[in-house]
Specification:
alpha+beta, five-stranded mixed β-sheet, two-stranded antiparallel sheet, about 10% strand, elongated
Length: about 400
């Protein structure tokens, strides 16, 4: 909406300048050509001042029309017509002629001459009004066109939103159905005492626990995703030391890195670097990105957490040496339940973690993207923060 306002204001100013220029040119034409003809034909005793403005021209034409009106009245009621003509003549000669001795009475014109003068005055008025009428019509056309385009875009966005919502609901149902089916089957087998072996029973119970945990994780992530998108949600921002936040989250995830058989490199400056952020939500972003790196890479992968600051731009890299992400997957990587995301099919993830991270970063006004990694790394999830002076 702000872009539309700026666009319309710019167009309005341009039209004002153009109309002002055209009106100035028309005033010159009227002063140079039309007034001399009008004076010589109808008002030989009046010398109009040079360089009359558009407003003055309109007033003179209006008073000339009044003179024509009183001229007609004079033929019926001479006394009243004479008073009106004298009053109009006095005003015109005092303010718009070179000398008050000039006389602008239009009494002795014939009916044909009065008609010609009337048409002459209307022509001048039309000349002065046409630029405003054309510019107003053009401006209305611009506004109508822009509003139609906005309506079209909003309809397309709504259709796309509905499509993505339906797809997300379908994917949620799919991701919940598999563990529910497994839990139901194993529970039924245990209930019917189909499994006799204690070790096998323990295996079934462990599977039920794992599937239940996966369902719980998915529902919690879905809750977080929906909460971030709700009207009532707002970030609880404060001054946060980004370096300290990154170190805290690195410490929390370090053991998971070791258990996954991965090398963890940390490159974070020691000095304080303050940003405006919701500390809890930013911690969730960093954690999600590092957990994502653990889940989607093989043991022996090297993972990097690095922060740099240059020319007022802070860059946080969460990079790894794992396999590159195909281009067709990169395009939709931050969408919920991203297509081509095998994390959902292999049970390593929900497909919502990156969507939540992207949404949180966008709400902060920062940037999150997938890029080629720094030297020695294949890919990097990169957060960019523009520091305020």
């Amino acid at each position: 909406m702000k872009n539309l306002q700026n666009f319309l204001i710019k167009r309005f100013i341009i039209l004002l300048v153009l109309v002002g220029g055209i009106e100035f040119w028309l005033n010159q034409v009227i002063n140079e050509y039309f007034f001399p003809v009008m004076k010589g034909t109808f008002l030989p005793d009046v010398d109009f001042r040079e360089g009359l403005s558009g407003g003055q021209i309109k007033i003179i034409m209006l008073f000339a029309l009044l003179q024509l009106f009183f001229n007609m009245i004079n033929r019926v009621i001479p006394f009243l017509g004479s008073i009106g003509t004298e009053a109009v003549n006095k005003v015109l000669t005092q303010y718009y002629a070179d000398s008050s001795r000039n006389n602008m009475e239009i009494i002795n014109l014939s009916s044909f001459e009065s008609l010609l003068l009337f048409l002459f005055i209307i022509a001048i008025y039309v000349m002065l009004v046409i630029p405003y009428v054309v510019s107003a019509f053009y401006y209305v056309k611009i506004v109508t066109k822009e509003m139609s385009e906005i309506s079209r875009i909003q309809r397309e966005e709504r259709m796309e939103f509905d499509r993505r919502r339906n797809l997300m609901l379908s994917d949620i149902a799919h991701d919940l159905r598999t563990p529910i089916t497994t839990i139901s089957g194993y529970a039924q087998a245990l209930k019917d005492n189909v499994v006799k072996d204690d070790e096998k029973r323990l295996e079934y119970l462990q599977a039920i626990e794992n599937k239940s945990k996966r369902m719980s994780d998915l529902i919690n992530l879905l809750f977080e995703y929906v909460k971030l998108d709700s009207d009532g949600f707002a970030l609880d921002t404060e001054e946060v030391d980004l370096c300290e936040l990154l170190r805290e989250n690195a410490a929390l995830i370090y053991q998971d890195m070791e258990e996954a058989g991965m090398d963890f490199e940390i490159d974070i400056p020691e000095e304080e670097l303050l940003i405006t952020a919701d500390k809890m939500q930013m911690s969730r972003v960093v954690t999600n990105l590092m957990v994502n790196a653990i889940r989607h890479n093989e043991p022996g992968t090297k993972i990097l957490l690095r922060m740099t600051e240059r020319l007022g731009i802070v860059t946080v890299h969460i990079a790894d040496t794992g396999a590159c992400i195909p281009e067709n997957i990169k395009e939709n990587l931050f969408e919920p339940f991203s297509k081509g995301d095998k994390s959902r099919s292999d049970g390593k993830g929900s497909g919502l973690g990156l969507s939540i991270a992207k949404k949180v970063i966008d709400m902060h006004g920062y940037e999150l993207s997938i890029e080629n990694g720094p030297e020695g790394y294949t890919k990097s999830f990169t957060i960019k923060i523009h520091l305020k002076n």
